[in-house]
Specification:
The chain is α+β, with helices and mostly antiparallel strands. The chain contains four helices and six strands, in the order ββαβααβββα. A four-stranded antiparallel sheet has the order 3-4-2-6, covered by helices on one side. The protein is elongated.
Length: about 180
């Protein structure tokens, strides 16, 4: 039996944790694990993490999720025992892997959904600009300003030099 997941369009800041269900003596190939997600579209595989929990050494998975994915302590508190009790490989699937697209998934026997967590995203606030920093108006008629006389002379001198160089080159090529 497979688990069906409907990922809404523009889903953001959600992290799903899957346990990889495999025999240690006959581990699944990485491609087979990714295929077990059963996605009906293309996933951004560079956003998906698949690793052995032994790679974390002394760091529990809950700490990795808090520090690496910004999962709040209040969410992890209830799941800590289950997350930290996992062994073997895990697959971490963040919303970024869907690229903002809606997707249907039929998770196969190679994976077991352990947790659906949300990243802590602080509200954005904008401080007012310092006093006097944005006061006043922009003057102008909307027409481009005329180039100063010095700039016109420099441009004219550049054009004359370019034409003289082309004339010299033509003269020298004609003598050959």
């Amino acid at each position: 039996m497979s688990l069906r997941l409907d990922i809404p369009p523009q889903e953001a800041h959600v992290v799903r944790v899957f346990a990889v269900m495999e025999d240690k003596a006959a581990p699944l190939q990485d491609a087979a694990v990714l295929d077990s997600l059963g996605a009906d579209g293309d996933l951004h595989s560079e956003e998906i993490e698949l690793f052995d929990l032994e790679d974390l050494q002394d760091m529990p998975l809950s700490t990795y999720l808090a520090e690496g994915h910004g999962i709040q302590e209040r969410q992890l508190r209830e799941m800590r025992g289950q997350l930290d009790g996992l062994t073997g490989r895990v697959l971490i699937l963040p919303s970024r892997a869907f690229g903002g697209r809606a997707m249907k998934m039929r998770v196969g026997a190679g994976l077991r959904l352990v947790a659906r967590l949300e990243e802590d995203v602080p509200a954005v606030s904008f401080d007012p600009l310092p006093a006097g920093g944005a006061h006043g108006t922009v003057a102008g008629t909307g027409e481009p300003a005329e180039a100063p006389p010095g700039m016109r002379r420099a441009a004219l001198a550049l054009v004359v030099l370019l034409l003289a160089g082309l004339g010299l080159a033509a003269f020298l090529m004609g003598r050959s």
